[in-house]
Design goal:
The protein has about 200 residues and is α/β, with parallel strands linked by helices. It has 7 helices and 7 strands, in the order E-H-E-H-E-H-E-H-E-H-E-E-H-H. The chain has a 7-stranded mixed β-sheet, sandwiched between helices. The relative contact order is 0.15. The protein binds 5-O-phosphono-beta-D-ribofuranosylamine (GRF). 5-O-phosphono-beta-D-ribofuranosylamine binds next to helix 1, strand 5 and helix 6. 5-O-phosphono-beta-D-ribofuranosylamine (GRF) binds next to helix 1, strand 5 and helix 6. Its EC number is 2.1.2.2. Catalyzes the transfer of a formyl group from 10-formyltetrahydrofolate to 5-phospho-ribosyl-glycinamide (GAR), producing 5-phospho-ribosyl-N-formylglycinamide (FGAR) and tetrahydrofolate.
Length: about 200
Amino acid sequence: LKLVVLISGGGSNLRSLLEAAQDAEYPARVVAIGADRDAEGLVHAEEFGIPSFAVSFANYPDREAWGDALLEQVQQWQPDLVILSGLMRLLPPRVVAALSPNLINTHPAYLPEFPGAHGVRDAIAAGVSESGASVIVVDNGVDSGPILSQRRVAVLPNDTESSLHDRIKLVERELLVQVVLDIANGTIDLKELVS
Ligand code: GRF
């Protein structure tokens, strides 16, 4: 399975996929890594010798123009699956339509709880005793697509946004590596889910 992974930040979840793909038995390979900015996580591309591209949102007059430029870069690699792993940008409908259903996203909450860009902060603010991690199919909403996998993560009394996020990321990575495996071996059929 050829993967293109899109990031905005440190790419720690991306790194977990790169490490999983080191195993010759793992039926997926990251063929390119993209970002909407000069993301720190692009360093993993260099380390693992994988092509990368950055389509900076700031260089475009609007979201649609940015999305079209990003889509052009992504489609060059003819991916079987595109993974948003910490991409902190909503994709324009044209991009979602072009890539769906082979477009998934990781989110640091137990969706549909706490969608959006601040899921971890919102869980802390809500004072819940547990949150979670989710992997979903991307649709035109915000973290609203079909849920492929999710798991609860405890919130500890003295948790900060960062300590909780770190704990959630550990689970996100496990879910992501497993979901990609399930898609590669047909256990998950995205076309059936998004029909
Ligand atoms: C992940 O928790 C992802 O779900 C969220 O932002 C975080 C990105 O972390 N959207 P990283 O860039 O993979 O370290």
